[in-house]
């Protein structure tokens, strides 16, 4: 049985713990590895190594840091197929989706390689007579990241490359449900030249999360995951004096106007609602049909019925959910939808995949006539379940969306530029797609979820990540001529 190692001070080491967590193949329930609950002493060792490494890493030339990430992105490209296969085995998503998971993280690594352009400060000459003022963006120190199960390649790559490129050292805690692809990415980072102690990895559940939030030498914590855990991390880390950014739950809506390109819209809707078995914080889990678009119900159902569910390695359309508990929760919520009066027009419960009878499979599921007081609307289902609602006008649809507390992402499908402009201006959601269902921006921008989907002012990767992982130091300087003398000045002026 493979035991997942930790990375402490440049060494991949076994844990001394007595507590091990099973990693299972979601398609078979076979235990494929075990991951440790890292001990408190090992967490302290990792932080101490990061603190020591920071003293030299922070002064490492920025071009040296950039070149490491140039090498790193090349290594990720070279190992893309291997990484996708590892990811699928432990997480369950299809091979194609796994490659997309790795690739979207790779884009952030490429962005980190341009850190010399991203971390430039400001300079103003002669703000007063003979006085110059300039600002510099300096690293914070030891930072940490806590990542979820649904994107075990992309989200770690959102975090540690930007933190390390800006001169910090890092403690990474991957999801205990699927840490193996993360560890392979970490191995490649070490191969690319990340020095000892600059990147460290610890494992486990709540005990490790709390230790990271509490440790006095950790200056900032980045988190992506569920709302309940995100609130806990934000409050606990903030109370310990840390910077914190927490990307949390969502309820993303797609608004379809009658003039939308029908075939393109239906294809995008099916992919965004059911891809990754709905286990995306950016999944389009609610569709609002405006006016005559309400006649598209049968077409939406037909697209969903055409999707194939199987083990991820067979690279069909949907793989399994991450765990039996996740499957049970999704099926329970489907049951509440029926009980509360929604019209179940496609039921994905009870699906069996030949050869994988023990898998955590739920097929595409569609509810019509959903109302905002139902549990299937109020809760993030995190499964392949689409809720259909109706609106008589775009204004009514916008009002419906703005009444929902979450603000991760939304989309509108239309051929009207005026309608799209009104939507982007009036909607109170951080990320908006126009004829594009999952509007996650490329890393030259920043992930900008909002409202109940986010805690903290700054998002991960992109421009905001550079701000999050650095502190601004402003210097005001005057150099006197040897013969210059102005006498004593007791005023506040320069």
Automatic annotation (TrEMBL):
Keyword annotations from UniProtKB, A to Z: NAD, Oxidoreductase
Aldehyde dehydrogenase domain segment(s): 12-475
GO biological processes: L-valine catabolic process; thymine catabolic process
Molecular function per GO: methylmalonate-semialdehyde dehydrogenase (acylating, NAD) activity
EC number: 1.2.1.27
Top-level enzyme category: oxidoreductase
InterPro entries linked: Ald_DH/histidinol_DH, Ald_DH_C, Ald_DH_CS_CYS, Ald_DH_N, Aldehyde_DH_dom, MeMal-semiAld_DH
Pfam families: Aldedh (PF00171)
Domain of life according to the entry: Bacteria
Database matches in PANTHER family: MALONATE-SEMIALDEHYDE DEHYDROGENASE, METHYLMALONATE-SEMIALDEHYDE DEHYDROGENASE [ACYLATING], MITOCHONDRIAL
Family under the similarity heading: Belongs to the aldehyde dehydrogenase family.
Full protein name: methylmalonate-semialdehyde dehydrogenase (CoA acylating)
């Amino acid at each position: 049985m493979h035991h997942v190692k930790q990375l402490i001070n440049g060494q991949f080491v076994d844990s001394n713990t007595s507590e091990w967590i099973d990693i299972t193949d979601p398609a078979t329930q076979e235990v494929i590895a075990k991951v440790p609950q890292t001990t408190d002493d090992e967490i302290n060792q990792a932080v101490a190594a990061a603190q020591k490494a920071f003293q030299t890493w922070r002064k490492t030339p920025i071009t040296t840091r950039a070149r490491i990430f140039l090498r790193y992105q090349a290594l990720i490209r070279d190992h893309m197929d291997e990484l996708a296969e590892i990811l699928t085995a432990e997480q369950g998503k299809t091979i194609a989706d796994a490659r997309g998971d790795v690739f979207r993280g790779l884009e952030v690594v490429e962005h980190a390689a341009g850190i010399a352009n991203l971390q430039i400060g400001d300079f103003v000459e002669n703000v007063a007579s003979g006085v110059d003022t300039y600002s510099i963006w300096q690293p914070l120190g030891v930072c940490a990241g806590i990542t979820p199960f649904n994107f075990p390649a992309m989200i770690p790559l959102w975090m540690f490359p930007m933190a390390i490129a800006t001169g910090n050292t890092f403690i990474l805690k991957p999801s205990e449900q699927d840490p193996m692809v993360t560890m392979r990415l970490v191995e490649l980072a070490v191969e690319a030249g990340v020095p000892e102690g600059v990147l460290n990895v610890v494992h486990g559940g709540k005990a490790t999360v709390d230790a990271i939030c509490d440790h006095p030498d950790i200056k900032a914590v980045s988190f992506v995951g569920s709302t309940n855990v995100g609130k806990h991390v934000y409050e606990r880390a903030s109370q310990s004096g840390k910077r914190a950014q927490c990307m949390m739950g969502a309820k993303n809506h797609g608004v379809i106007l009658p003039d939308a390109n029908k075939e393109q819209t239906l294809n995008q809707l099916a992919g965004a609602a059911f891809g990754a078995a709905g286990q995306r914080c950016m999944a389009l889990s609610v569709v609002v049909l405006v006016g005559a678009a309400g006649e598209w119900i049968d077409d939406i159902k037909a697209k969903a019925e055409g999707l194939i569910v199987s083990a991820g390695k067979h690279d069909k359309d949907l793989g399994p959910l991450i765990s039996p508990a996740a499957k049970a929760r999704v099926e329970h919520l489907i049951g509440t939808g029926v009980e509360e009066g929604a019209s179940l027009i496609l039921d994905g419960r009870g699906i069996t995949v030949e050869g994988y009878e023990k898998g955590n499979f739920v097929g595409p599921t569609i509810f019509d006539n959903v109302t905002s007081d139902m549990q299937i609307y109020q809760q993030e289902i995190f499964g392949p379940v689409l809720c259909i609602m109706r609106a008589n006008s775009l204004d009514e649809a916008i009002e419906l969306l703005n009444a929902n507390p979450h603000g991760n992402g939304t989309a509108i499908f239309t051929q009207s530029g005026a309608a799209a402009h009104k939507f982007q201006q009036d909607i109170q959601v951080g990320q908006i797609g126009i004829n594009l269902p999952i509007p996650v921006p490329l890393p030259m921008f920043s992930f900008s979820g909002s409202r109940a989907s986010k805690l903290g002012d700054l998002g991960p990767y992109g421009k905001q990540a550079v701000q999050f992982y650095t502190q601004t130091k402003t210097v005001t300087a005057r150099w006197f001529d040897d013969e210059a003398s102005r006498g004593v000045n007791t005023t506040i002026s320069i």
